[in-house]
Design brief:
Blueprint (H helix, E strand, L loop, with lengths): L1 E5 L7 H15 L4 E5 L21 H9 L2 E7 L7 H9 L10 E7 L7 H13 L3 E2 L4 E3 L2 H4 L9 H21 L2
Parallel strand pairs: 1-2, 1-3, 3-4, 4-5, 4-6
């Protein structure tokens, strides 16, 4: 099973639209998908006591993250970094077992011309610390507003091809990581 993590809790997020397109793509590749959407984090996730004991309401989302064989993180760049909600979610995941040696694929979404490159550097550092196996071919989607065709997703064939190539390559990476 592949987990697709929507790396923001912002309402109306472009990352959510890209993640939905990736869900359809992985389904066409005959993959079972679990969507892990930070927009669905219960309010208890933000409690000051969450690091002492995870509330029961958070456990299903955490379990889906821990149980997936590979994790695709679709994240926006906010002020040159990742959203605080994504960092917070990674922080509440059990250490080290949640991400240690888990194959992780990165898809960065940005309004600017660099396509979440700066955010990617921060996220890769965090995932490296958490001992994740980072797929070495991230996908950066710059000027995402120009790429998205309404609420349907990205229609540009060159970007769809890159998404497919990354997805096929990541599935092979997951398979080899399991050996």
């Amino acid at each position: 099973m592949i987990g697709i993590l929507v790396g923001t809790n912002r309402v109306g997020s472009k990352s959510r639209l890209v993640a939905a397109q990736l869900v359809r793509l992985y389904a066409k590749l005959d993959q079972k998908i679990e969507v892990i959407d930070l927009g669905a984090l219960p309010k208890e996730a933000w409690s000051g006591t969450v690091f002492k004991k995870l509330p029961l309401s958070i456990l299903p989302m955490v379990r889906r993250t821990v149980d997936c064989k590979g994790l695709v993180v679709v994240y926006p760049e906010y002020n040159g970094s990742i959203p605080g909600s994504l960092k917070h979610y990674i922080d509440i995941l059990p250490y080290p077992e949640a991400l240690a040696r888990k194959p992780v694929c990165l898809v960065g979404v940005a309004h600017g011309a660099f396509g979440a490159l700066r955010a990617s550097m921060h996220l890769e550092s965090i995932l490296f610390y958490r001992r994740a196996a980072i797929y070495p071919f991230p996908l950066y989607l710059p000027k995402v507003d120009e790429l998205l065709d309404g609420r349907c997703g990205i229609k540009r064939e060159d970007i769809q091809k890159k998404m497919l190539e990354q997805s096929v390559g990541f599935l092979e990476f997951v398979r080899k990581s399991a050996l």
